[in-house]
Amino acid sequence: PKSVGGSHSLFLLKAHGALMFVAWMTTVSIGVLTARFFARFFKSVWSKAFFGQAAWFQVHRALMFTTTTLTCIAFVLPFVYRGGWSSYAGYHPYLGCIVTILAVLQPLLAAFRPPLHDPRRQMFNWTHWSVGTAARIIAVAAMFLGMDLPGLDLPG
Questions:
Q1: Quick check: is 155 in a domain?
Q2: Transmembrane segments in this chain: where (predicted)?
Q3: What is the extent of the structural domain holding 107?
């Protein structure tokens, strides 16, 4: 019997895929659920101050910071592997650049978040939600496009 399981690609590409997968399928998903679910339904339990902010917000912020950090680390790995830009990777690197830009933009937007009852708060909320949702959708598209790349060297 012949073993056909797993990728035969180099470590840097495996690490790139694994870090992006963890960031965009795990930490960002749990972070969004924390902000949406726990903040809405368990506000009385999770609103206790923890380092000056509500506990749910601290969890959300930590998970989103982890997502941004993993994305930035993973973003560099294909450039190290290829020694620059790959013109043979189709749309995957373009989408990856957009996702990375949006991932870095999110904490910058959050740093300028208006106070709770400020009239601009609603505009911030919609902008923050829109940029985050766009990043998640584009990240999933990039992952699907990345699965077909020859550098991944998956069995046929």
A1: no
A2: 20-42, 62-81, 93-112, 124-147
A3: 7-147
